[in-house]
Design brief:
Length: about 220
Amino acid sequence: MFGPEALAKEMFSNYRIVDLSLEVRPGVEKVDGDYHWGNQIRRFQIRQFIAPGPHFMYWVEAETHVGTHVELPAHIIDGAKSATEMPLEMFMGEAVVFDFGFLEPGEDGRRLIQPGHLASVKPGDIVLMWSSRPGRNPAVSLEAGKLLAERPIKMLGIANVSAPDDVHHVLLGRERTPILIIEQLAHLDEIRKERVFFIGLPLRVAEMDSSWIRAIALEPQSP
């Protein structure tokens, strides 16, 4: 059984940490009135003020779907579970990584991820999908979404891949154990192994339909 020191040594000696999160730059209003533009299309503004001390602090006004975020059942069902009601083990586990850059457009011009592309997915997996090919992003077909729900997986994470509304409802709407969806992952191209250990912990904030996360992958250093 690992103690804390042995566990830390095992992690940092045998695993490479890959940051899978986008950098988010909010718009910033300073106390002197100066304003710095951010890099987000969705609203994310912070306003600096001076608290007793004196210390610098910020008021924050933002949408929940900014940067790398995990979507929860409350995103599609009013009053459904938010991050505070989900066990922490839902947000970490073994992950399998797919690059769907090889997909060719179908007759309708879309590139669809089908059940046959997901043969290596195991029950309880976190499935991370991305596309290395520029152009229109591939989409998870409804049939592939149903397969992931029936397996079932733990979470679906995407970058340059779309999960349409019907797939959102199939995954997030599972009655007993919803399958969470992570959007706007980054740097999946830096992962070299097919399987890694994924961690993406949400803020412990009640009622929100989605939470920002710092997503990382622990990739084994061994061949």
